[in-house]
Amino acid sequence: MPKNPADILAAAAKINGLDSPEAKPWHIKIAYQVFDGEGKVGHTGTFEEWWAGPKKDKRVYTSSTFNRTEYVTEAGTFRVGDEVGPPLAESLVRQRLVSPMPGSEDTDNAELQRRDNPFPNTKLTCIELVRKIDHQLGPSPVGLFPLYCFDPSAPMLRFSGSFGLLNTLYKKVGMLGGRYLGTDVSISDTGKPFVDFHLAEGNLMTTVDESIFAPPANAIALPEQSVTVEGKVLAGRKLNGSAPRYPAAAKSARISGTVILSALIGEDGRIHELRIKSAPDVSLALSAIEAVRDWTYAPYTLNGHPVEVSTEIRVMYRLSGG
């Protein structure tokens, strides 16, 4: 196991999840249980995927609330079924199993630091992806920034999370094609269960049936390009969400300024990812995330199709009076 945080993360990226162009063709089936906002049992479903390359991929979502099949091909991406893409729970089921490691949007301009293990009864090696904070009235709470924890003996991912976002605990981990894969996983939202899932099937495909990856005649083509929308444009599409509170300690210390967050808004209008880019103070950053994470928007469309969009959200804290 490497000692340097950057080396640990690099080693882990090579061996966790299935998201690698060099991977051998694989097939997985996941059974999941979704919980409501109070942590009570909601609907169940399955997610199944056949992958034989970045442009040869079939994904099937099946539940009482969402049914859709997606085909990623050389000719583009196609869908059959529900028009609006995967809700947050279904999106996370795939992402936290297939692509669990941070991307460049997390690591670029971040300082990688060793961080205290948030699980005192389990030995873990944790790496935090720290962003710029101008003032600190006290130590940053664990998980203010994206946190990744690994088994101390090998770069096996056991936990990922961040304050105000959904925390993922990999309770059991197996291997498929020489890569670590969560087989029993729990995702929680501020301490309440959000979705649990387990790997029902997982195997490498010794032969590739090309017909599996061929979209049917009634499949609808989806927009290919990634969409970035200015924050002021997206602000006009906001449907719900409370304003952040001004922390008393920051106000007393006369700390003001703007918290800049990067966000990924799903096709369902919910915030699927939220990251701190910069902040004048820890407490202001926490306040901004706490409020913004629950904002919802009217789904953004491109050529008539709902699409997920990347945007920047600025939360301003202004002092009044002298």
From TrEMBL:
Subcellular localization, as worded in the UniProt entry? Cell inner membrane
Tree of life domain = Bacteria
Instruction: Check the record and name the InterPro entries matching this protein.
Output: TonB-dependent_transducer, TonB/TolA_C, TonB_C
Query: Keyword set for this entry?
Result: Cell inner membrane, Cell membrane, Membrane, Protein transport, Transmembrane, Transmembrane helix, Transport
Q: Does the keyword Phosphoprotein apply?
A: no
- Any single GO BP term: protein transport
Which cellular component appears as one GO term in the record?
A: plasma membrane protein complex
Q: How is this protein situated with respect to the membrane?
A: Single-pass membrane protein
Q: Does the keyword Membrane apply?
A: yes
Q: Outline the extent of the TonB C-terminal domain.
A: 231-322
Predominant location of this chain? membrane
Q: Where is the signal peptide?
A: none
Q: Which GO terms describe its molecular function?
A: energy transducer activity
Q: Which family does it belong to?
A: Belongs to the TonB family.
Report the PANTHER family cross-referenced here.
Answer: PROTEIN TONB, PROTEIN TONB-RELATED
Report what the protein is called: TonB family protein
* Organism from which the protein derives: Silvibacterium bohemicum
Q: What is the lineage of its organism?
A: Bacteria, Pseudomonadati, Acidobacteriota, Terriglobia, Terriglobales
